[in-house]
Amino acid sequence: MPTRPVTLTVAGKVVTGEVRLERETEIRGTVWEDGSFGATIGFNQLTGQFSRDAFEGRLRRPTAHGRCC
Predict the structure, then answer these.
(1) CA atoms of 47 and 69, how far apart (whole Å)
(2) Could you list the residue range(s) of the whole structural domain that residue 49 is in?
(3) What is the DSSP string of 9-58?
(4) Does residue 68 form part of some domain?
(5) How confident is the model at residue 34, as a pLDDT?
(6) What does the pLDDT look like over 2-21, one tens digit per residue?
(7) How many folded domains does the chain comprise?
(8) Does residue 65 sit within a domain?
């Protein structure tokens, strides 16, 4: 899957943002005290880790049978 730019805003434990997949898509998730992160983008799952001002993560998209990756 190609790399996509993602915009995230963290307010306390709440994370919101946007990513452009086939269309502009809203992100809603949670960040925990250790910097780990989980969110949904429609039916897609975004997980990862914040470290200072950087984020590294993985976007998992369901297959045609409804299973993820």
Answers:
(1) 13
(2) 6-60
(3) EEETTEEEEEEESSSEEEEEEEE-TTSEEEEEETTEEEEEEEETTEEEEE
(4) no
(5) 92
(6) 667 778 888 888 888 887 76
(7) 1
(8) no
